[in-house]
Amino acid sequence: xxxxxxxxxxxxxxxxxxxxxxxxxxxxxxxxxxxxxxxxxxxxxxxxxxxxxxxxxxxxxxxxxxxxxxxxxxxxxxxxxxxxxxxxxxxxxxxxxxxxxxxxxxxxxxxxxxxxxxxxxxxxxxxxxxxxxxxxxxxxxxxxxxxxxxxxxxxxxxxxxxxxxxxxxxxxxxxxxxxxxxxxxxxxxxxxxxxxxxxxxxxxxxxxxxxxxxxxxxxxxxxxxxxxxxxxxxxxxxxxxxxxxxxxxxxxxxxxxxxxxxxxxxxxxxxxxxxxxxxxxxxxxxxxxxxxxxxxxxxxxxxxxxxxxxxxxxxxxxxxxxxxxxxxxxxxxxxxxxxxxxxxxxxxxxxxxxxxxxxxxxxxxxxxxxxxxxxxxxxxxxxxxxxxxxxxxxxxx
Length: 397
Ligand code: DI6
Ligand code: FE
Fold this sequence. Notes:
This protein is of the alpha/beta class. It has two domains: 2-58 and 357-395, Roll (Urease, subunit C, domain 1), CATH 2.30.40; 60-349, Metal-dependent hydrolases (TIM Barrel). The protein is 38% helix and 21% strand. Helix 4 crosses helix 5, helix 5 runs parallel beside helix 6 (179-196) and helix 6 runs parallel beside helix 7 (214-226). The two termini are 15 Å apart.
C-alpha cells in the first residue's frame, strides 16, 4: 500500500514531522517513508491512498488497561459523590472487590463480549495496541479465565493485545488478614500456570497500604524473573511505599501512577530507564490532588507514557486522546510529551521495539487524523478526529 500527501509525525525525534510525505507498507511492515518527491520509482505503481494532507501518526498504544471485568461501578461513583473516599469504599468491601464478585460470576463468553465492547471504544479513539491486565479474579481459575479472555480479544479485533498477570491486585475476602498466604497460594501459583499456558507477557502488582507490601511484591517479582517475565508495578498511587525503588531495582519496564513518588524513586527509575506511566484518568476520577512529579521525571530523563488505566472503579475512560488532554491540562505535560507517551514511550513500557515510531522495518500500525498538527490531538477535549486506521498494513473499514 502507498499513502500519499500525508503530514507524517514519525515520532523518531520529537514529532519527526515530514510534510507532503508518502508511506509505503509491505505486508505488516513499513517499507519506505519520506517526502513525496523522493519516493523511489519502484513504488510509483502501487495502489495509492490519498491522505489529502491529513496527519499520520503511529497507531496509539494503550500500555495500561483493565478492560476484562464483570459488572460496572456506577453505584460506587454515586457513593463517592455522597462523600466516601476511595479507601473507605475499598475497606467497606466495595471498590475492587465488588468487581471481583461480578467477574467470578461471569462466564468467559460474557467477559469477552463486554471486553470487546470496551476494546471497540479504544479502537475508535486511535488505539492499535493495548495492554490488558488480570486482577479481578483473585483465584487461580478466575485469574486464568480473565487472561484467556484477554488473549481472545486479538482473535476478534485487529488490535495487538499484550496481557499482564495482576493477581496481586487486591486481597480477596477469603484471604483477609492473610495476604502473605494469598501471595504464596494464589498469586505465585497462578503466575506459574499462566506462564506455562502462554497466557502472559508481563507481571504487575499493586503496591499499596490497601493491597500488597514491597516485601510481598518482591517475592512475586522474584518468581516472575525466574520465569524470564518482565515486571511492572502500580506504584505510589496513594502513598509512598518506595515501590518504584524496588521495581526499578529489579529492572522493571514501568512504574505506573507514581503520584506520590519521591526523589529516590525518580532517581532509581532514571538509572534503569524504567518508564513512568502517567494515568490522568484515575487522578481525575479520584479527584486526587497530588500530581505526579512531571518536572522531576523530565529533568531526570525518565521516559513518560500516558495510558487510560481503563477500569470500572478509578478510571472508566477509553480514549487515549482524552487521557493526553488530561495529562497536558492537569499535569502540564506538553502535547509532544503526551503523544510520545501514547506512542514511543508506551511501546517501551511494554517492551516493544517494533512499534511506537514510524520507520522502515517497523510495524505498519498507523492512524490518519483529521488534523494538520499533532498538538491538536492533545488540545481537543473529548473529540476523536480519527479518520482512518491501519493495523499491520491493513486498512480497517
Ligand atoms: N489502582 C487503580 O486505580 C485501579 N487498580 C489499581 O491498582 C483501581 C481498580 C478498581 O478500582 O477496580
Ligand atoms: Fe491500573
